[in-house]
Write a structure and sequence with these properties.
By secondary structure, the protein is mostly helical. 57% of the residues lie in helices and 0% in strands.
C-alpha cells in the first residue's frame, strides 16, 4: 500500500498508527496507541479475563491489524484533504479502539472447547460489541464512549444498515463508516487474500453447521471452490456498492494524491479479482 508494513507485526502497525495520530493531534497522548495495542494483543493472545487466544484461521489478529492500518491511512487521508467536519481527537481514539476490538466476538471462553471461534461468525458482531463493553468498562471508559465504540463495531455486520445506527454526531458516524470501509478493504487487499479464501470457507462451513444456518450467507457456499468463484461477484455486486452508497465513499480518501490519484487498496483488490476471473475453473455469475 502506501508503504510496506508487516501486518503480522503489531508493533509495525502500531508505529504507523502512532505516526498518523501524532500528525493529526500533535498534543495527543503519546502513550495512547501503544496502550490500546497492548490491550488488543492481550485480548487476542488469551490474556484478558476468561477468554482463550484467538483460534479462527481467517479472522485472526492479522486480519484486525490489516483493517486497523487501513483505517488509520483513510483517516489520515481525510484529514490531509481538509474534509469537514474535522475529526476530534477523542473520536479518532475511539475509532482505533473499535477496529482493534471489532472481531473479538470470535474469541471463546476458556471453558468453550468445541470447535473454533469461527462458529460464532453469525453472531460475532453482537459478541464483539459485548466484549468491547466488558473491556472498556474495566478501563473506566464512560458509557457514552462505550456506546460509540459499539455502534462503530455494528457498522461491520454483513447485513448492517450503517445509516440507521444511532450515532450522536456526524463525526461519530464518519468514524464508524471509516471502520467498516477499512474492515472490507484491509482484508481484501492483503497480498495473501486469495490464498486465504479456502480458510474463510472453512469458517463459514463451521458457522453454518453450528447455527444450522444453511439459508444464511455463511451457509450459501457449497465448497471452497464455490466461494472462490463467486468472490468477484461479491466484490462487484456487494462490496463496491456498499462502499459507495452505504459508507459514503470514504474509500476515496485513500486516493494518493487526493482526490484523483491511484488508490492502492482498490488497485490491489481489482488485481485479485482479475486473477480470479482468469482461473480456468471460474464460472460466470457464481
Amino acid at each position: 500500500m502506501s508503504a510496506p508494513v508487516v501486518t503480522k507485526d503489531p508493533g509495525a502497525v502500531a508505529a504507523e498508527v502512532q505516526a498518523v495520530y501524532l500528525a493529526m493531534f500533535p498534543d495527543g497522548d503519546r502513550m495512547f496507541v501503544s496502550r490500546v495495542f497492548g490491550w488488543a494483543v492481550d485480548c487476542f493472545g488469551g490474556r484478558f479475563a476468561d477468554y482463550q487466544a484467538v483460534d479462527a484461521g481467517y479472522h485472526n489478529f492479522e486480519h484486525t491489524l490489516q483493517g486497523t492500518l487501513c483505517m488509520a491511512r483513510l483517516l489520515d487521508g481525510r484529514w490531509r484533504a481538509g474534509a469537514q467536519p474535522a475529526l476530534p481527537r477523542r473520536l479518532f481514539e475511539l475509532g482505533i479502539l473499535a477496529i482493534l476490538l471489532h472481531d473479538t466476538g470470535y474469541l471463546k471462553k476458556r471453558s468453550d472447547r468445541e470447535g473454533t471461534g469461527a462458529k460464532y461468525t453469525v453472531t460475532h458482531v453482537r459478541r464483539s460489541a459485548e466484549f468491547a463493553a466488558e473491556l472498556l468498562g474495566q478501563k473506566d471508559y464512560p458509557a457514552a464512549d462505550v456506546e460509540a465504540v459499539q455502534n462503530m463495531i455494528r457498522c461491520t455486520g454483513v447485513d448492517a444498515k450503517p445509516g440507521a445506527l444511532p450515532f450522536r454526531s456526524e463525526t461519530e458516524r464518519v468514524t464508524g463508516f471509516a471502520l467498516a470501509t477499512a474492515d472490507l478493504l484491509g482484508q481484501m487487499a492483503a497480498e495473501d487474500y486469495l490464498e486465504k479464501l479456502p480458510t474463510l470457507f472453512e469458517e463459514f462451513a463451521e458457522a453454518a453447521a453450528y447455527t444450522g444456518g444453511a439459508a444464511t450467507f455463511v451457509g450459501s457456499f457449497e465448497s471452497a471452490e464455490d466461494l472462490i468463484t463467486r468472490t468477484p461477484q461479491f466484490w462487484e455486486g456487494f462490496v463496491k456498492p456498499k462502499l459507495a452508497r452505504d459508507l459514503d465513499g470514504l474509500h476515496r480518501f485513500l486516493n494518493d494524491p487526493y482526490p484523483d490519484g491511484p488508490n492502492a487498496y482498490l488497485d490491489r483488490i481489482e488485481a485479485h479479482m482479475a486473477k480470479l476471473r482468469r482461473r480456468p475453473s471460474s464460472r460466470s455469475g457464481g
